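Friendly challenge for the regulars: who can give me the structure tokens for this chain first? No prize, just bragging rights.
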Amino acid sequence: MKKFWAGIWPFAFLAVLSCGGSVGAQIPEQPKGNYWIKAIGGTGKDYAPSFIEDADGYTLVGYSESFGAGRMDFLIVHIDKDGNLLWSKSIGGNNEDKAYVVRKTSDGGYLLIGNTLSFGSGKEDVLLVKLNSNKELEWARAIGETDTDLGQGLLESKDGNYVVCGTTRFPNQKVAAFLAKIDKNGNRIFSKTITSQDSDTSCSGLEETADSGYVMIGHITGGVLVIKLNKDFVIEWAESVGTGIGEGMLYANWDGIRQTSDGGYIFAGKTSQDGDADYFAIKIKADGSLEWSDFLGAKGYDAGWTINEVDDGYIGGGTIGRVARTGSLEGDPGDVLFVKADKDGNVNWASAFAGPGVELDEIEEIKQTKERDGYVFSGVVASVEGKGSDFLVGKIDKDGLVKNCNNIKSLRIVNTKPSVSPSSMPDSIAEISYTVDRKPLLLGIKDVMLTFSPVSPEITDAQPDVETICKYP
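First reply, four minutes later:
Bragging rights claimed.
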């Protein structure tokens, strides 16, 4: 079958904020609706890795140097369906606090997870924050031991409690993935670690499955770690997923893993940590066996940070190395990549967005809208002044575009990855062949007493600026 994903060589364009003019390719007539791309932030570095769709708009969460009590704070931003600011709050202490994931809770509130240097007992701890329906602090917990602890997986389970996952390290032990179940009042029900005798383990994403069990994604030596647990948190199967090239490393993002409608799972990521990484998407069956895999790349840093199932296939995205620029933008590290494919992995279209600044642009999450008239995404865009970054949020149409916008354009699919310069294949994506290695694992899971400390981060109103980059009509 055809490859699901393919790589892209970035495109050259006039670095302007105007959305008028031709993008060099015929744009199909769009369905009736509003499409837009906006930057939200302040004077510092602001980053939005996660969002949810609410009844009246979208709620984004991330971290900000521009607002709050410390060097960096959680920032939660609520916008309407057209990207207009409704409210925003900063949450944190006097040091550095970063939010990665937000979930709407059944009581109308919000649950956020991230990392903190402001609270806790270790070098860095997990920070879990619960807001009520009035956006007021209900409770907060610092979770961790005396070393570095990271938290990136979060959900409200069917029984009304909360489940989180991350990474911890107890004294004289390996780094280990952890799971914790918490009641609605923030009290620990249990906490567990998942360990390997031969390697460190971690958890960067978590989802409840149709059978009331759970699937986790993280890392282990050699590649991506995928674990399926039953409803009682007993491991059903575990595996590492890597490649047969180089060090064989694959890395998945905190956007995590998704169960698909056929009972399988899909996730995206990148192939290495160096400057020549490639983008991948991998589909596995319900038992963990490989169904298909696809990779994309160009000369430079390409990464896949998000993928979700939609009505007629999958929508994904991340970043693509930007090396085809001229003038002041030459050498800019990356543009946003969007790719749409059908359920069999055949690419329907690909497009790329380039922000006005000279730093990395990327998205961390993309989803189909409830109206099914396009796709909403969040991430980061470099500020035009080059002094920081902003939340990037937007809605593209079902063809991956915003009509009359010079900052976004369609890409063509090729089967050769340029080795020297992208100028010979501009506005293109290239499919790459990798061998995927799947290795079953024998892991241990045990109860541990992770430290849960009540904390009181400061919550303040924030007033970020909203800049429209593109809009149609």
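The radius of gyration is 21 Å. DSSP finds no helices and 37 strands in the chain. Your move, everyone else.
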